[in-house]
């Protein structure tokens, strides 16, 4: 423990060891906030004698939770770390609902409706009610309403017809979730608030609450924090108002002020030293964020050398911008010897819609790249099919999962038949499973008529589900695991053969090979993710477990936990089997880059209308978003502005007003830096890497046709570009 404190600066030590019950640690980018929060948790356990199962630590991502658990394990040991209540707000909320949800009427074995389920339910209700509202926006509108704790009744009373229509869909949506024993993401938090408000004894043991990325909390999460800590009011939060960029998720930057008003003795500690970026990058980023006159002024000191000034590059068009980025990546990577690899480069965008030209240019140049927040692993068709089978086995009343797989592989059950069954189930207020089961058993009063072939298909499907359910209920069968269960599904539905037929004729079987590799990855994830310490989704065997009633069989609980983990996880935080072997340039949105860092960062499309976005309501938040992007860079930062959307276009762009201010000019270069050995040594020091040899650097320079960034004119004019093209 003493060794840990020796590695902290004075402000970090103060935050870690403060005896103050309520603490706000304001931590700007690169100031070691995770290290500080981790050290405080370890300090409370090792020095203050807090029991880890009486400490709640909330993070915003699974990745952050895992990283923190690993760090704490290295300090206090695995035995104590495993007993810590650490996870995302949603995972911790789920734990309380699994253990105590029956106190507020939540049925055991509830499932979680993921975003795909939510959209499918809303789409079906929208169609049935023939609503005039725009279908694609209703699900997010319901989520925003829940984040502000607004129920359907509040919209029913509105005089606006549009809000009354929304209320009807919202109400039907809630009824559909209830009939399927599902909670959506927002419900997990709302119902946990309800639980802890009505039954404060559920958190009577909690001695301390610590919250990461506090500036991203919404109203419900703030209330949940206060309820977690209601008995002792010992709270530590870490946050930075300059990085509040999630208002579209209902995040409330005002929660920082709300906390100091509600807890008047709150002590604020400012972390001031940046350990990530060069001084030149920090100076430029600070000039951007300081344009917000209403922000809390906070000092930020670089611990690295000055380094190279950021580049603000004007290009004739978005096509030229993409080509320039590729050229500059090649130039810097080659001139710096062995200092940089492809995975040291990131290209950040205000919107993923801007990525096409950049992806095309990278592809033509043979530069490997990956998209952060791209297609989720668990949303891939072949993976989704198996997960939906698991959902139906775990929870037969999950209508949407059942509807997706009852005819996968094909069982002669047509879309019209399925649509009629869904409508009948909704009208009768029963589950789709109850109708399908009744038809398969040739009994019950089911209005929908099915063909003989469809009947045979339903009987086959029901038999598979019942067989798998019987296997997982055998508590004494210790050999049968979650992996065995998935294997049973694969065998019963002849999934390998199905995928081979689907992939026939596509690139000589490459489609099948890729899909089957995803199935194998799912089996690997089933082994890893379902482990208790993967996400910390269960209470440890301590005081709180004594109140729990006898639950389901071990495999039933493992299955339920696995499906919950899938619903609460994002693909960016799981192993990427495709990306491990090759070092790849990262393409990400600015939002998706939060919490990450790279040696070299390009922020493309920095024009007015993109950043700030033309549809943005909050200009200050757009400025903070740019600031977050700029502070992802460690050694080199590029900002590029295409003056036209294409070479043929006459629509002109102006440089973002956040960057067009005269005060910023001295802090930026107009073109990429000239690379000398002295500069390479500076870059190596900032990155704490070995400097390449003179010979390596010279060989790199000789291999390049152009060693300077001089292909495009500095003013971004087309005339200069066209002249150069003719030459």
From TrEMBL:
ATP binds at residues 27-34. SUPFAM superfamilies: P-loop containing nucleoside triphosphate hydrolases. It holds the Pfam family UvrD_C. Its EC number is 5.6.2.4. InterPro entries: DExx_box_DNA_helicase_dom_sf, DNA_helicase_UvrD-like_C, DNA_helicase_UvrD/REP, P-loop_NTPase, UvrD-like_ATP-bd. Residues 279-595 form the UvrD-like helicase C-terminal domain. Residues 6-278 form the UvrD-like helicase ATP-binding domain. One of its GO terms (biological process) is recombinational repair. This is DNA 3'-5' helicase. It comes from Eremomyces bilateralis CBS 781.70.
């Amino acid at each position: 423990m003493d060794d840990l404190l020796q590695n902290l600066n004075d402000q970090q030590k103060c935050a870690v060891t403060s005896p103050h019950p309520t603490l706000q640690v304001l931590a700007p980018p690169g100031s070691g906030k995770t290290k500080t929060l981790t050290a405080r948790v370890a300090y409370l356990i090792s020095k203050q004698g807090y029991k880890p199962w009486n400490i709640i630590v909330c993070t915003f991502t699974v990745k952050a939770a895992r990283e923190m658990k690993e760090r704490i394990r290295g300090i206090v040991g695995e035995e104590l770390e495993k007993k810590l209540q650490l996870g995302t707000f949603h995972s911790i909320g789920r734990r309380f609902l699994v253990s105590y949800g029956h106190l507020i009427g939540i049925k055991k074995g509830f499932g979680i409706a993921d975003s795909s389920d939510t959209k499918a339910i809303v789409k079906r209700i929208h169609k049935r009610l023939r609503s005039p509202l725009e279908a694609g926006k209703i699900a997010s509108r319901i989520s925003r309403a829940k984040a502000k704790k607004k129920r359907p009744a509040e919209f029913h009373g509105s005089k606006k017809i549009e809000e009354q229509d929304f209320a009807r869909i919202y109400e039907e949506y809630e009824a559909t979730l209830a009939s399927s024993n599902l909670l959506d993401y927002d419900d997990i938090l709302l119902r946990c608030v309800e639980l802890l408000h009505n039954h404060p004894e559920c958190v009577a043991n909690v001695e301390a609450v610590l919250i990461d990325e506090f500036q991203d909390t919404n109203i419900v999460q703030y209330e949940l924090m206060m309820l977690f800590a209601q008995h002792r009011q010992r709270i530590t939060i870490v946050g930075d108002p300059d990085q509040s960029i999630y208002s579209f998720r209902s995040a409330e930057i005002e929660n920082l002020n709300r906390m100091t008003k509600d807890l008047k003795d709150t002590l604020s500690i400012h972390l001031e030293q940046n350990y990530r970026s060069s001084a030149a990058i920090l100076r430029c980023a600070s000039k951007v964020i300081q344009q917000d006159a209403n922000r809390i002024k906070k000092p930020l000191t670089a611990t690295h050398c000055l380094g190279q000034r950021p580049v603000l590059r004007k290009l004739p068009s978005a096509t030229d911008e993409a080509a320039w980025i590729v050229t500059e990546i090649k130039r810097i990577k080659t001139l710096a010897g062995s200092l940089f690899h492809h995975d040291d480069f990131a290209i950040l965008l205000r919107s993923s819609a801007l990525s096409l030209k950049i992806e095309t240019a990278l592809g033509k140049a043979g530069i490997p790249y990956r998209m952060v927040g791209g297609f989720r692993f668990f949303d891939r068709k072949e993976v989704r099919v198996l997960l939906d089978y698991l959902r139906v086995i775990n929870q037969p009343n999950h209508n949407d999962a059942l509807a997706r797989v009852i005819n996968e592989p094909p069982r002669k059950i047509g879309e019209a038949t399925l649509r009629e069954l869904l409508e009948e189930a909704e009208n009768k207020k029963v589950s789709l499973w109850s109708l399908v089961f009744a038809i398969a058993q040739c009994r019950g009063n089911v209005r929908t008529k099915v063909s003989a072939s469809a009947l045979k298909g339903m009987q086959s499907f029901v038999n598979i589900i019942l067989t798998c359910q019987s296997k997982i209920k055998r508590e004494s069968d210790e050999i049968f695991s979650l992996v065995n269960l998935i294997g049973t599904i694969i065998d019963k539905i002849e999934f390998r053969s199905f995928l081979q037929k689907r992939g026939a004729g596509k690139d000589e079987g490459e489609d099948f090979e890729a899909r089957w590799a995803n199935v194998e990855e799912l089996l690997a994830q089933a082994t890893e993710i379902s482990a208790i310490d993967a996400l910390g989704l269960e209470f440890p065997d301590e005081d709180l477990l004594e109140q729990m009633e006898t639950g389901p069989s071990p495999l039933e609980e493992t299955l339920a936990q696995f499906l919950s983990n899938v619903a609460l996880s994002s693909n960016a935080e799981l192993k990427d089997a495709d990306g491990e072997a090759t070092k790849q340039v990262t393409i990400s949105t600015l939002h998706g880059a939060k919490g990450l860092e790279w040696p070299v960062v390009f922020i493309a499309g920095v024009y007015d209308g993109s950043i700030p976005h033309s549809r943005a309501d909050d200009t200050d938040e757009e400025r903070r978003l740019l600031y977050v992007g700029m502070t992802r860079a460690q050694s080199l930062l590029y900002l590029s502005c295409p003056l036209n959307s294409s070479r043929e276009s006459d629509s002109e762009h102006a440089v973002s007003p956040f960057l067009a201010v005269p005060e910023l000019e001295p802090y930026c270069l107009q073109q990429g830096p000239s690379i000398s050995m002295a500069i390479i040594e500076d870059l190596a020091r900032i990155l704490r890497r070995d400097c390449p040899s003179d010979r390596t650097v010279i060989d790199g320079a000789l291999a390049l046709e152009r060693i300077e960034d001089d292909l495009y004119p500095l003013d971004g004019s087309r005339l200069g570009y066209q002249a150069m093209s003719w030459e």
